[in-house]
Amino acid sequence: MTRPWPPGAATGIGSLPGIDPVEAARLVFGELPDLPHVPELPDRGVGADMIGRTAALLVDLPTEIAASGWRITARPGRDLRRARDLLAWDVDALEAAGQGYTGAVKVQVTGPWTLATAIELASGHAVVSDPGAARDLADSLAEGVRGHVADIAGRLPGARVVVQVDEPAIDAVLGGRVPTPSGYGTVRSVAAGIVEQGLRTVLQAVPEGGRVVHCCANRVPFAVLRGAGADALSIDASTLTVGAYDEVGAAIDAGLALWLGVVPSSGTAPDSAAARAVIDELWADLGFAFEQRANVVVPTPACGLAGATPSYARATMKLVREVGASLLVDDS
Fold it and tell me: Buried b / exposed e across 268-301, counting CB within 10 Å, b at 16+?
């Protein structure tokens, strides 16, 4: 499969500090020219958070803010209008910054299972507690993602759209660790086959080759993500244990790309040599030929950069770009 992004590309996870979408879009296109993304700016408040942004995409499933978070409601209201407006401004900024752009461009959405843990039914229970409601949510999200991809493609006609589906809570769903409203119990675990199908429903709304699943959980359900049809897996290198190497290797053998978080989202950034060493050491342990790295690995920050300072965020994007370019040089 031909990947939408070139060998040696690097990208961000999504979120950045600040409140100006125009400035953020220019920054991303400047620092990550091979695989820019739509910046997420949660500092803007309600509707700019990852759940609100994705709720804005749902079709025929309106939501609103309740005391405990986002909740399904009978009709669209002020909260949903605000979320949709914020997303529209972000896409407008992307279009302005990307005029004439002809490469891959990435958008991010919250995955169906993480969304199902964060959005409530009218009863106050999470959507994930109701199998029928969870299916409806996945179907609604898939339709919304399909329209979002078409919108981006229409605004940047020379670009190939890549969609990163964020699933930080998917392991909790599989393991039965999603808390009930009382906090004293947990929602029953969802079978792997059902989780895989729900995720597949959303991924199939994305053009083949551009289906990326990001999971920053300590235990990544690699088999489920592969089975759902992911083309790339985005993970934090610091959480990757030796016990997962066989699954990572099997994913690469199956043709999946590996988006590897090699720079912390805050604190002290390593230099490019140290970040590159993380990739080289993993690659050596997996036993693949070093000349394959640039075709398979996309360096990223470990997670979103919303909690970083503006200077750190810029430095991090520059650093992962340098690491990506260095993979094109076979100096192993």
Answer: ebeebeebbebbbebbeeeebeeeebbebbbbbb
